[in-house]
């Protein structure tokens, strides 16, 4: 399939980002943050974001971040699929030669992206998440794109249900055939190490670019907002409020979260719980909440935007995932000065200053998780330290300027002065301390 390429005359500084959708997920949030940072960079000629799905009115909310993405001024649209009048002879022979041997949907998606890249002539294609990495990676190699970045945002696919049979061979083919044109990225060291082990790559082959978070003081919810939120939901002003924000899917372990909540409720009878999110496990979660007898103190509050409005009224944020890249909810909570408790899932442990801004629990035992939450809530000195140190920790390690500079550096060929440089200007709305 990758035996022949059709080189393009790439436009210097032109970047195309590819992601499945802009639904309310951590990876999608980082796609948009990157889009905004690149658009503000003097080093970039133009940025286009291509998605498979952007339609509204679905439970998945594929267009959740679309308004924010378009506020950057970049072109944001779905991948063209109306290539019917294109002569099949314009497709590369390698792709046509395997048309009957590979997944037909994969074949169509790669062909559509190949034609997009031929028309757009990017110098850099930057794909996000395995679904898009495989499709955009194959298409970009066939189209002769000079620089191709494939960004994993979690542990490798072997840990998740969405792991198709062609991910592994496609990644291997890209790495073996495309050489230095392919750059593999991850947003945590744990994720990078796991992908490297899965793909039998040497240490250091996968670059780590940690998430960049866009925060300014005017984004911080006011005490009045926090009080109104509690009043609206019947939560007493002084009651301990434990918050969670995640998709209701197995890898987030929402039932473990609730089991820990049940144990916390037994020790802290005035504690309340608020979970923000949606997903396939909602009905099961509602059943467990009733079984635990905490339905009067637990709210499934749906998706809230901006997310800070849901986190700020809480006293502590809890995450109990089995697999994570870099959870934005932990970064946002610490920037607000809220202590966090998290399982050591993938890159989650790297996103917390353990013992200072939060606690990393290195077991999936509900009792141990509950004990950690109770210990933090009862320790005013710890919470005071988290309020003081959290914002500076996040600004230093997860600032936007650093993330954009590292991304632009990854776009360059080593030693090639004619590739995109990393002289970027800082977006006005960003802070990185």
Q: What value does the Rg take, in angstroms? A: 22 Å
Spatial arrangement of strands, main beta sheet: 3-2-1-4-5-6-7
Helix content: 25-40%
Give the overall silhouette. elongated
Q: Mean pLDDT, nearest integer?
A: 90
Strand fraction band?
Answer: 5-15%
Distance between the termini: 47 Å
- Which residues sit in consecutive blocks of at least 5 with pLDDT less than 50? 414-418, 421-433
Classify the secondary structure makeup into a structural class. Answer: alpha/beta
**Strand and helix order:** EHEHEHHEHEHEHEHEHEHEHEHEEHHH
Count of DSSP H/I helices: 15
Task: Write a concise synopsis of the structure shown.
The protein is α/β, with parallel strands linked by helices.
Tell me about this structure.
The chain contains 15 helices and 13 strands. With 433 residues, it is an alpha/beta fold. The protein has a 7-stranded parallel beta sheet with strand order 3-2-1-4-5-6-7, sandwiched between helices. Helix 5 links the parallel strand 4 and strand 5. The chain is elongated. The C terminus is likely disordered.
């Amino acid at each position: 399939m990758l035996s022949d390429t059709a080189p393009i005359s790439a436009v210097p500084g032109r970047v195309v980002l590819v992601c499945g959708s802009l639904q309310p997920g951590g990876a999608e949030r980082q796609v948009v943050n990157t889009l905004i940072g690149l658009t503000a960079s003097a080093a970039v000629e133009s940025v286009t974001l291509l998605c498979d799905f952007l339609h509204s009115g679905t439970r998945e909310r594929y267009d959740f971040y679309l308004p924010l993405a378009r506020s950057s001024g970049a072109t944001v649209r779905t991948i063209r699929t109306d290539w019917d009048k294109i002569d099949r002879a314009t497709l590369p022979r390698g792709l046509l030669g395997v048309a009957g041997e590979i997944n037909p949907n994969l074949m169509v998606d790669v062909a559509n992206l190949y034609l997009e890249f031929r028309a757009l002539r990017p110098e850099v294609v930057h794909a996000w998440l395995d679904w898009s990495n495989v499709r955009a990676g194959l298409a970009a190699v066939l189209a002769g794109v000079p620089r191709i970045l494939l960004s994993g945002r979690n542990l490798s696919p072997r840990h998740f249900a969405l792991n198709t049979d062609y991910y592994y061979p496609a990644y291997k083919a890209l790495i073996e055939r495309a050489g230095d044109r392919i750059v593999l990225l991850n947003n945590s060291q744990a994720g990078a190490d796991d992908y490297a082990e899965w793909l039998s790559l040497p240490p250091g082959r996968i670059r780590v670019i940690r998430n960049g978070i866009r925060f300014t003081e005017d984004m911080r919810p006011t005490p009045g907002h926090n009080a109104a939120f509690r009043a609206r939901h019947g939560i007493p002003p002084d009651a301990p409020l434990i918050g969670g924000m995640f998709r209701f899917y197995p890898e987030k372990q929402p039932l473990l979260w609730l089991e820990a909540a049940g144990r916390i409720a037994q020790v802290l009878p005035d504690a309340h719980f608020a979970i923000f999110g949606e997903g396939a496990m909602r009905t099961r979660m509602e059943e467990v909440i009733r079984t635990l007898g905490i339905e009067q103190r637990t709210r499934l509050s749906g998706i809230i935007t901006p997310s800070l409005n849901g986190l700020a009224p809480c006293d502590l944020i809890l995450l109990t995932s089995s697999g994570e890249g870099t959870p934005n909810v932990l970064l946002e909570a610490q920037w607000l000065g809220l202590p966090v408790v998290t399982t050591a899932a993938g890159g989650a442990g790297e996103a917390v200053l353990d013992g200072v801004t939060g606690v990393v629990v290195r077991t999936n035992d509900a009792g141990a998780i509950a004990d950690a939450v109770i210990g933090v809530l009862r320790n005013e000195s710890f919470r005071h330290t988290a309020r003081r140190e959290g914002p500076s920790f996040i600004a230093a390690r997860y600032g936007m300027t650093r993330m954009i500079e590292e991304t632009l550096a990854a776009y360059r060929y080593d030693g090639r002065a004619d590739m995109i440089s990393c002289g970027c200007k800082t977006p006005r709305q960003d802070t990185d301390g």
